[in-house]
Amino acid sequence: MKEITEAMWKEIDDIIQGHKGKRGALIPVLEECQNVCGYLPMEVQERISKGLNIPGSTIYGVVSFYSFFTMVPKGRHTIKICLGTACYVRGGKPNLDYLQDQLGVEVGGTMGDLSFSLDSVRCLGACGMAPAMVVDDDTYAQVNRQNIMAILDRYR
Amino acid sequence: MGRISRDQLNEIKLRGKGIIDIRLGKVSVRADGEKHLMICGGTACHASRSKPVRDALKREIETRGLSQRCKLIETGNDAFATLAPVMVVYPEGVYYVHLTPDVVGDIVSQHLIDGRPVERLLYRDPGSGRPIPRMMDIPYFSNQRLVTLRNLSLIDPENIDDAIARDAYQGAAKALIDMAAEEIINQVKISGLRGRGGAGFATGIKWELAAQAKGDGKYVLCNADEGDPGAFMDRSVLEADPHAVLEGMIIAAKAIDAHQGYIYCRAEYPLAIRRLNRAIGQARDYGLLGTDILGSGFDFDLEIYQGAGAFVCGEETALMTSIEGKRGMPRPRPPFPAQSGLWKEPTILNNVETLANIAQIILNGGDWYASIGTEKSRGTKVFALSGKVNNSGLVEVPMGMRLKDIVYSIGGGIPKDKRFKAVQLGGPSGGCIPLELLDTVTDYESITSTGAIMGSGGMVVMDEDNCMVDIARFFMEFCQEESCGKCTPCREGTKRMLELLTKITEGRGEMADIATLEELAEMVKDSSLCGLGQTAPNPVLSTLRYFRHEYEDHILERRCEAGVCPDLFKARCINACPLGQEVPGYISLVAEERFEEAIRLIRQTNPMPGVLGRVCNHPCMDVCVRAQTDEAINIPKIKRFAADIAREKGATVPFNKAREKKEKIAIIGGGPSGLGAAYYLSLMGYKPTIFEELPKLGGMLRYGIPAYRLPRDILDEEINYIIDTGVTVRTGVRIGREISVEELRSTYDALFIGIGAQRSQIIGIPGEDMERVYGGAEFLRQVELGEPPDIGKTVAVIGGGNAAIDVARTCIRMGADVTILYRRERKDMPASAEEVEDAIAEGIKLKILMMPESINKTNGRLTITLHTCEPGEFDKSGRRIPVPVPGKVVSEEYDTIFAAIGQVSDTGFIKDLDLRRGRVSVDRLSLKTNLDNIYAGGDAVTGPAMVVDALAAGKRAAVSIDRDLSAKRGERPSVEQHEKIFVTMKVPGEIVEQGMARAPKGSPHERIKDFREVELGFGGETVKKECGRCLRCDVTIE
User: Fold this and answer.
1) Residue A22 touches chain B, beta carbons under 8 Å
2) Alpha helices of B899-973 — where are they, by DSSP H?
3) Which range has highest mean pLDDT (A71-75, A139-143, B673-677)?
4) Separation in Å, CA of B427 to nearest CA in chain A
5) A126 and B43: CB-CB below 8 Å?
6) CA atoms of B390 and B395, how far apart (whole Å)
7) ipTM of the complex
8) Structure confidence by residue, pLDDT tens digits, B55-86
9) What are phi and psi of B448, to 5 degrees?
10) Cβ A129–B478 below 8 Å, yes or no?
11) In this complex, is the C-beta atom of B240 within 8 Å of any C-beta atom belonging to chain A?
């Protein structure tokens, strides 16, 4: 498991302090903490629980409800294959299967060397560019077997 | 600048007029004038690599010292997404498409400096190839009405002054300073605006309820969660024109007396969030958000709340619960949010698109908005058109437009000549609209009546390669994953429905499953807590309503016609072939020169390989996966090679007959469907007798398809093979003349009607009954019988299908000068493109857009009067209806005129037979007619179709007859036994791009001297190479 460094704990505490007392702060706090550590392991959830005075079970309930939150570290780069309707209709699933084979990871998983995480996403809203893929913050259009690995190579 | 007053707002607007005038094309165009380059910078354009283009342009403009005169602005909006990256250059309004960094130099030197737009970078009309320089002249745009998207390509979303120059915050000023809350609500009510998020609830009434509610801290919420897969309207508005949304919220706040707002934006939209944040910051700087806005005394501010990846949070109460920091689970209503919403305060939640229209409604008046659209659905709607459509992107049209016009006139139709199947509206809450209903207009009630919903605007087009059962499963899987789990009907119901759908797509379904699905659907719809569950069954119900036969095929025949459900087929070519030919198998055998095994494998499912190798219309090639790399495999020609080599080597393929059965079957018609039925019945041990009216067997194979396409010796051999299995033949016999139907029914245990469609369809114009005006099908028959009429020297053929081409090419071989007259455009001709090419190569003239009016005789010669036509609006097949141009009439003289526009069947010989539109009506799967023991198939049922369809129908009838007769005997039906032929399972290694091999043809002016075969087969080397291109989709990896 990826380690939470001292610097990260400090940032987490700052985030908690910044939102303390605000109503509905939990989700923004979780989002920001996940940006810092890459994931939300139990230790971080417990820290937030103490800091915001919200029961740990409530926090776990929220983390497990929203697909954006993960308790498993993500890779350095996240690959998201869109499986929204237009992308599905234009071959999004074969792309996903192909990547699973090539990278040796299942959907939702991360490669052993923590280089890439692979996930599917429901509609990036880039339907005119189907089938679409997002790597980190970059969106790619009309990906297929021919070009997909070359795109990923740019991130290695 | 700091906080501004209303007057200062107007000053900023005035200052910006010059800039906007340039973009509205209100200034004269000069080569050295100021130019605004609006490069699209929405997410989709970024995905198409617009950023490198933008950067290259920036560098080039700076290097050339043009930065003062030429302004490069990155806008939002993924309007015509298929063309991205795009850019508009003002004041000309020139639209550049498919930009890449390397063309930047030309744009700058040719256009920006010399004033000459770069023609090769312009949009081209797909039909004519003509460039269309101005964006607004392109049909995709000219057919739209931009209200929500009025700022398309006109403003920099990250510069509030641009928005203000386009009237941003004028509506807010009017609402805050000039109007009372009731007036605002009244205008919104008058406008008829309905929630654009999908439910279509009257916005004015929603606001009124919240305004009337009592509360200390009301809230205005904007739903920017846009979770529907296939929807990107809201994202586009936020990325292109964020101030429109902010302004809408300010006005809403005044209407209900709220002072705090939230924009709940899904986290998957980072660019939208970034631009929103910037817009909010700039608005706050001007004091347009915060306290005492524009000196009105009204306070309002808002925050962005980011979603965390839960579709259900698009539902209003779930959204509010999420803002409250909890699991996004909906709450029961009542109480409704207008009374008790976020933090239990009165709250209104409106969709992005709804809010983006508010300012204009306030500025222009509710009446203005209500003047657009239909009575119950006022205004415009933004759709996100995507899927199997040529032009993908945002489409804003007035309510009430026909779906057909959106798909064809704006969407540009279906790519690759595929057939339209359905358009999905409303995402996972919606339904699909099939071809028959494409005239439905886009208004809430009309769409709901089809079983779909308007939804948020996602419109996904599907074609023949999409499986509707799989689509239903896809949406149910989505709903099941996104179900929050709170209420049992949705949590359990969607799970069970998904299990059933999965079962069906995996070939394990039963007919009872459909009934269970329907029952579950009703229950889930009725009792779910929120809209997610209440609408999750819609796609299932909708697909069952219009595509029930696909479900039945999956269940009863374990068949996925579209070739999508992987458990139901091996390779797409095998699946698409009506006979189920083992295509990759025999391709592999031919490649290995195992010719005897190849022909044996082919003949396992195809009794006429030489014939089909020459004339089949190859549905296999239409789905060949190789086409995604370069071109399809030339499958029929490989089959032909195998058949020809077998013939050459004298290889005979033995047939296996099952145990003899006593029943006798009468087959009416000796064409491919009758031959197919006879063959299979014979193999099953029955005693079929073919009754054929003409002197020889073959039907259209002999009396329709000319010899230059199908040599008679090949045809005779393959017919004889079938007869030799034990078929009795009686030619020269017409049922109803030599023998009556009653006699047949008393003598035979079953009848199969395979009479085809032999009679030419009447055009219906005056003079059609004149001498020397003939039906095409009759003519071809007479030629084959050796009794052709004298056709003279000049011939006209009316029609555009294969029959018309056959007639034309026959006439040119008889020495005449031939002209084909077709009423639509060449690409619309039903004849295969190759046939049309061959005909033209032979010297046949093709005149398109000519509609016959009447035929007369002048001085003993025939004259046909034709109206020149223009392509009009689209019909449901996606082809344009020819519209006669007033006054443009021509008269042409010919010796002979042929009508070849279609064929109909002669079913008169049998009474009481149920027909449907002139064709024999049968049960789709059993081919039984309404009369006992009488079956039918082929063209008599379908109308003119392919040979392979007829052969397959013959087989289906044989199986069906056997099933019924066996049941009567108390026996099990015959089981087909095939020898196992070992095929090497090997996939090609490296794939080298190379086109399809094409069979050589005789030179045109030589080959028309007689009826010799035009197409020559492949040589040994060519066929091997072609076989090597096969990707072996039949091979699976364990």
Assistant:
1) no
2) 939-942, 947-969
3) B673-677
4) 8
5) yes
6) 13
7) 0.80
8) 999 999 999 999 999 999 999 876 888 898 99
9) -60, -35
10) no
11) no
